[in-house]
Amino acid sequence: MPPPPPPPPPPGAGYIPPPPGGFAGGSAGYAARRTDGLAVASLIIGIFSLLCTVACLGIVLGPTAAIMGFISRQRITSSGGALGGGTMATVGLVLGIVGFVASVGWFFIAISGAITSGSTTTHSP
User: Fold this and answer.
1) Which helix (H) or strand (E) holds 83?
2) Per residue in 56-89, pLDDT tens?
């Protein structure tokens, strides 16, 4: 004798209501990583140090960007993944160093140009 058929499902049993709050998507329960503000500031100041090379502002802005980038990288590393922006911090650090070196080089080029243009007077008899 075959087993009896299972009982019919109650009405509306095939419908499962969505959870409260709507569809959560693939990131349910995880907060987005915050970008460290010091990394953003380091990147911006590093760009300005490179752009302001001709005015020799990179001598001040370059080390500022490099120090901020270095501190930001340490904060991101020690946050255990809660903070992001490591690439921005590294780029800001590198741009700060490049801006400083370019400003110092431009300063010496400008000084040597001023010295040589003042001393190249020719005397005619």
Assistant:
1) strand 83-84
2) 899 999 999 999 999 999 999 999 889 999 999 9
